[in-house]
Amino acid sequence: MQGTVETKIAGGIAEIEFFHPQSNSLPGDVLHTLAAAIEDAGKNQEVKVIVLRSKGEKAFCAGASFDELISIGDMQTGKKFFSGFAMVINAMRKAPKFVIARVQGKAVGGGVGLACAADYTIAHESASVKLSELAVGIGPFVVGPAVERKIGTGAFTQLTVNATEWQSAQWAEQKGMYASVHASTEELDAAVQTLAAKLAASNPEAMKLLKQIFWQGTDHWDTLLSERAQMSGTLVLSEFTRNAIEKFKAKAK
Predict the structure, then answer these.
(1) What is the residue extent of each domain of the chain?
(2) Which of 12, 47, 145, 226 stands 20 to 30 A from 154 (CA)?
(3) Number of helices (H), then strands (E), in the chain
(4) Other CB atoms closer than 10 Å to residue 45's CB: what's the count?
(5) Which of the 8 DSSP states describes residue 98?
(6) E strand or H helix at 13, and its extent?
(7) What are the start-end ranges of the E strands in 28-179?
(8) At 190, is the secondary structure helix, strand, or coil?
């Protein structure tokens, strides 16, 4: 596995950090490991709150791995890959603890999904967002429910349709994706740590019940996100999508 997922637990706070050398993109093996780490933290009695972060100072998450996308050769493999994002979102949704996301840089596609699936997201002012899926011939099907739930149908539609345009961190804050935006990494880390420490000292049963209320009406997401993964897994096999991904990869070089 080229990427990594590391969990550190201290003072009731589980800090889960993922990394991939390609702008923290998420291949299937990293997605599965990340989902398992979130599930484990949710079950751990020592953990009161979960902080999700990525390594480095630049991109928070570049979304799906283009190398892995272009290698998909059949619908079953495609569905399995996109089910990785579904697993992470559902793990965040089901965890009986609040998940705080620390977004230090740009978020694309699946990265936007992670930022929206968190219960509380704190960002750096450089953390602009983009749902680029339509531009490569698919759509934000799997992350869509989490994004729409967080920012509403209008803003979700704007991100989805205008798939090549970045929206600023301030835009994301105005739409409710980010709870707060900070001018420096030091301020970002201080805000995350302050909130995490407060929550670690709060009543875990109260937080568990509040989390259930926050996510009311999403019990069908296991099935929904699996169906959405099949949509993406089918579309990624098309000649249109393969050509679009190759063009994106060429631009990135």
Answers:
(1) 4-185
(2) 226
(3) 10, 8
(4) 6
(5) -
(6) strand 13-19
(7) 49-54, 99-103, 107-108, 120-124, 129-130
(8) helix
CA atoms of 2 and 60, how far apart (whole Å) = 17
DSSP percent split of the chain into helix, strand, coil, nearest 5: 55, 15, 30
Tell me, what amino acid is at 178? Y
Half-sphere exposure (CA, 13 Å, Cβ side) for 69? 26
Q: Which token pair is 246?
A: 């190759």
For 133, the token pair is 């899926």
Classify burial at 97, counting beta carbons within 10 Å of its beta carbon; exposed 0-12, middle 13-18, buried 19 or more: buried
Rounded to 5 degrees, φ, ψ at 138 are -120, -140
Consecutive H or E run containing 241: helix 239-252
Q: CA 240 → CA 103, 134, 135, 154, 165, distances in Å?
A: 32, 11, 10, 27, 20
pLDDT tens track of the chain, all 253 residues? 589 999 999 999 999 999 999 999 999 999 999 999 999 999 999 999 999 999 998 999 999 887 888 888 888 899 999 999 999 999 999 999 999 999 999 999 999 999 999 999 999 999 999 999 998 899 999 999 999 999 999 999 999 999 999 999 999 999 999 999 999 999 999 999 999 999 999 999 999 999 999 999 999 999 999 999 999 999 999 889 888 888 876 766 5
For the domain 4-185, what is the CATH code? Answer: 3.90.226.10
Amino acid at 36: A
pTM, to two decimals: 0.95
